[in-house]
Write a structure and sequence with these properties.
single chain; alpha/beta; FAD/NAD(P)-binding domain; FAD; FAD/NAD-bd_sf; oxidoreductase
Length: 400
Amino acid sequence: MKRHILVIGAGFGGVWSALSAARLLDKHDRNDVDITVLAPQAELRIRPRFYEADVHKMSAPLGDLFASVGVHFVKGAANSIDEQAKTVGYLDESGQPAKLQYDRLVLAAGSNVIRPNVEGMQQYAFDVDQIEQATQLERHIKSLKDQPYSAARNTVVVAGGGFTGIETATEMPARLRAALGDDSEVRVIVVDRGPKIAAALGDGIRPAITEASEYLGIEWVLGATVASVDADGVTLADGKRIDAKTVIWTVGFRANPLTEQLTGVRDAQGRLHVDNNLKVFGQSDVFAAGDVAYAATDDLGNFAAMSCQHAISLGRHAGNNVAADLLGVEPTPYRQPKYVTCLDLGAWGAVFTEGWDRQLKLVKQEAKDLKTQINTIWIYPPAADRATALAAADPMIPVA
């Protein structure tokens, strides 16, 4: 009887886990192991681009790619893991419960934005976390032209000044003018709890973000939090009112709650602690990749971020190592010492840094050209050609 590797998730971590497992099986000329990817859709959704316009185009089909390397795809949404029985429960595409058995499991189910229990949050705040929500925001922005003019109609509030918030905010002036007219007076306001612009991102990158904000006319309300959201704007914790027809929430991310069904240690974001081979501590048959893995990138105390930069490499290693574990061959320990930041800053350009201390390397158009290359080429899956796809899944390929 064939043994079975099951991968939960078709994001960056899941896709590269499946391809890398297939690569190692091919390398050892083994056809006694099946690989299955379980996910709601057979497409890689390019989540890092969801702040852009035309978000409905931000996905890449996976059916032909998986077929080319012998990976089986099951359409469904995982909702339970039984580590004793080695089964994963899911709802199939018709909504019926079903189960899959595994010998080895890679959990790569991703993460979600945290929507806190703030008054009006669920009814009135948009986000760019998943393609459905980002598409809803796009429809809303395009519909603003049908509303009578008001300052609130032409105003966007972005809650959160981290990576997602900054990229979303700096794209908004152009997106608003595209909807309302090139000569429209628009206002974009970032509400952030930090004491300085991009406080959490460090001094190296802050001057570029500050300059871009000034160039684009983006306002920052600092040391502030949102207390409530309604159809006409937000009220801050200090009582200040900002009128806006568009409120976008970008604060905080948490690993998929499936992590809570496994015996293991989790960090504050719900990510499972893993060893150097990405096996979950306390588990003999479960590996983790992408946003559900709390993985050391080096020996200096740095850990993988919730980013495609890390998820791709985590996937390549997790897939290789889950197959190696099943075959009884040497794994490839995960290490990703190089860390870069390439932050899109709208019409101003972009900023590129290297190192965890974010040493400035490129700004404006040079950085924008690199960001465009990353977003439109580097993070997309390989062609549906067996040799090309397997070669691209080598865990020794450097990322970033």
